[in-house]
Design brief:
The structure is a homodimer of 134-residue chains. Chain A is α+β, with helices and mostly antiparallel strands and 134 residues long. The first copy, chain A, is built from three helices and seven strands, in the order H-E-E-E-E-H-E-E-H-E. Chain A has one domain: Pnp Oxidase, Chain A (Roll), CATH 2.30.110.10.
């Protein structure tokens, strides 16, 4: 994988929301908005409902495409990063570390009783970007 | 298909951007941000690069999941609609009608001098929503 430059890492780490696309059994595409955390290296973590469409799709096919983007009607300001990832459920120390990041970044999880559900690591295997300046 | 209520139609029609997920040959998920137009009934139209990942994926598998959503750090304001669609290239009068809508909604197309490339209709077969009030 091409190394991810620092300014792209910052863009990924600061994103309040990403959109995760999956291709489940039978080739059914799906996409949801999710609040991600980033370890600063090559792994995002998200918490999913264990029986959600996305969780079921990832059990059938662990590939995920993660879009982080900003839309602007001034098209010279469009920015996006697409991360091609492999999803794996995490537990133990790795899940704890992900949840420390989640609690720090999204204090609003407190208001919805933030118990971990299905915490998934999304390991970046390949990435592309457009418009994210240094 | 469940009829789409008027307030959901408005939400779809007013969206400046949507995210289109595809599952190409070999079950590779992909997702891109695109500027859509809506005919107010059950068809979105978008213009794609004919050799883009999304166009190639749709040739292999015409199913698309289209996400229209608004993120807000106040999670009581989260809104989303997911449209499960079948994509087909359009030409002639249907393409002309789509481009009338594109030019009216996105005058910035003029500044990048985009002639129609691969114009695709995305026909809604099924939809779900969360948080889009009447």
């Amino acid at each position: 994988m091409n190394p991810i430059p620092d300014h792209i890492r910052r863009y990924i780490g600061e994103a309040r929301v990403c959109r995760i696309a999956t291709a489940g059994a039978g080739g059914a595409p799906h996409v949801i908005p999710v609040c991600p955390v980033f370890d600063g290296d090559r792994t995002l973590a998200v918490d999913l409902g264990p029986e959600s469409v996305t969780a079921r799709a990832l059990r059938a096919n662990p590939r995920a495409a993660v879009l982080i983007d900003d839309y602007d009607d001034d098209w010279s300001k469009l920015r996006k990063v697409v991360l091609h990832c492999i999803a794996t459920p995490i537990a133990g120390a790795e899940q704890d570390a992900a949840w420390e990041r989640i609690r720090a970044k999204y204090p609003q999880y407190g208001s919805v009783n933030w118990a971990p559900r299905l915490t998934m690591a999304l390991r970046i295997e390949r990435w592309v970007q457009e418009g994210v300046g240094a």
